[in-house]
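Running this now, will post back.
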Amino acid sequence: MSLEPELLKHAFKKPFTLLYPFEKRETPKGFRGRIQYDMAKCTGCGLCARDCPSGAIEMIGRGRTAEFKVHLYMCTFCGQCVDSCPVGAISFTNEYEYASTDKSKLIFEFKRPVEMKKP
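Update: finished.
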């Protein structure tokens, strides 16, 4: 079998691959990227930290003053924290590019918004 017909058949077609990182595919619906806290909704119950199978969520404080650190290098993106949150304060983003040799760049902190003091 000769390769010339096969070569001519594919010579003028568009490449199947993308020129990553310059071209990126759209993430599918339900994609599990980095988790995001909505601190205005969060009650500080701690179910997310308790139910995380990999221990990637660190809760600092209790109740409505609680803040969170997510150690992304430990996260398995299983979605248990999203399912456990009774108020829906945790969601997934479409972000997925986290290659780093420094673990400190893979720790995301979620702090309470500073409330404006009344005069």
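The helical segments are 4-11, 47-51, 80-84. More later if anyone needs it.
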